[in-house]
Amino acid sequence: MRPAPPLALIALVLGLVLTFSANATDLDKVRLAEGESGTQVVLEMDGLVGYKFFALHAPDRLVLDLDGTQLAPGFRLPAPNGAISSVRTGQPDAGTLRVVFDLGMAVNTVSRVERDGSHARLILDLASTAQTHVANRVPDSVPVVAIVAAPQVVAPPVAIAPTTAVHATPARTMQDVLGAAPRKLVIAIDAGHGGKDPGAHGPGGVHEKHVTLEIARELARLVNADPGMQAVLIRDDDTFVPLQDRYMRARAAQADLFISIHADASPNKTATGASVYVLSTRGATSQAARWLADQENSADLVGGVSLDEKDPGLAAVLLDLSQSATMRASDDVAAQVLGALKNVGKAHKPAVERANFVVLRSPDVPSMLVETGFITNPGEEQRLDDPDYRARLASAIADGVRQYFTDQPPPGSWYALQDGKRSPVDSSRSNERMLMPVIVGNPK
């Protein structure tokens, strides 16, 4: 889900938000320590909370958001130390405590959580780097991504509290603070099948792999034409990509949203209409077990929290909360896309469907699979072979994604900036925002 996301969302986007208590958690203390490997930040809290962090530049800053957290009575800001020149706090949203670390250099940040009964300790290790990635992570062209190390940086939210005081002050928009454009949401677009896997074919000989690639390319063009989104094609030619590699490539690209394009098939040649799928609960549960059993994967799965060092029960809870939020975002954006596709032609089913598709199993990127029609239906095969009809399908998918991000703009995105420009009446929607996952570590 980071650019609608991107991605999300993004990834969620989005970032990962996990809450373990109905009551606000107190941030008791922040300690800074300088060592041989860099600067370490230790945050002492009276309970586990969800968190996300990201880097900003010119000047360099590290921003940490703590969900459901407040400053403890008597809290004092720490003195500068190491790479950190000052620390300040704010409240960008109700229920979120923001801690901003002003830096003397760009850093890479790795996080971990330690637990001692009801007490929790969040540790951030900051190491200097000249290769820190900025918010707009994808070039203007439509690349084919490789499985590479994903940077431990997610895009900035809408506002940075401009005060060094303990109490929050009214937040300004990111454009006010930075004088720079907000990030684009990364949308990973997966053309189904390819290469040695042609997919289904129609009675007239049209192959699914060609239809999906043409629709994916057109969708990428429309996404790139949107000021708030950037497309990443999982494949841009007639090549074979293993199913698991597809969603792992989306994670590596720090996608805010993953869309897999397919064409349906049925022994019943009269079957017709588009469908939109999200991951079934059963599929999510089985995949979670695989992730938790895989030490290589479990180390980088959930929003900067290393699961391989956690108690198995706690690790399962963290992963379950992450997947639940990702699946909720998937449901919402899929519903918007299905509604838009109904304007192009008949839908095969009136609601979003659920299935255990491998490509939908990313635990931290909102994902959906779009069956654009039945290629085994002679009439629908002809339509899917028509460039104008494929363009209409791509436009409907783009419209659905755009509407979703307009309704639920991820923090720091172009859509969030537009949302901030609305009048109080226009912006009186729910405060809920799409969860854009934090992607850290190296996807395996």
How would you explain this protein's 3D organization?
- The chain is of the alpha/beta class and 444 residues long.
- It folds into two domains: 25-177, Sandwich (Immunoglobulin-like); 185-407, Aminopeptidase (3-Layer(aba) Sandwich), CATH 3.40.630.
- Helices cover 26% and strands 24% of the residues.
- The chain has nine helices and 15 strands.
- The strands form three sheets. Strands 11-10-12-15-13-14 form a six-stranded mixed sheet, sandwiched between helices.
- Strand 6 (84-90) and strand 7 form a beta hairpin.
- Helix 2 crosses helix 8 (387-407) and helix 6 (312-341) crosses helix 8.
- The two termini are 19 Å apart.
- Mean pLDDT is 74; it is low at 1-22, 130-180, 291-310 and 423-444.
Number of domains: 2
Query: Which segments are poorly predicted (pLDDT under 50) over 5 or more consecutive residues?
Result: 1-22, 130-180, 291-310, 423-444
Distance between the termini: 19 Å
Bulk shape: elongated
CATH domain class name of the largest domain: Alpha Beta
Number of strands: 15
Name of the CATH architecture of the largest domain: 3-Layer(aba) Sandwich
- Radius of gyration equals 22 Å
CATH superfamily of the largest domain, called what? Zn-dependent exopeptidases
Set out the fold topology:
Layout: E1 25-35, E2 38-45, E3 51-56, E4 61-67, E5 69-71, E6 84-90, E7 96-103, E8 107-116, E9 119-128, H1 174-178, E10 185-191, H2 208-225, E11 229-233, H3 243-252, E12 257-264, E13 275-279, H4 281-293, H5 295-298, H6 312-341, E14 353-355, E15 367-374, H7 378-384, H8 387-407, H9 414-420
Parallel strand pairs: 1-5, 10-11, 10-12, 12-15, 13-14
Antiparallel strand pairs: 1-2, 2-9, 3-4, 4-7, 6-7, 8-9, 13-15
Helix pairs in contact: 2-8, 4-6, 6-8
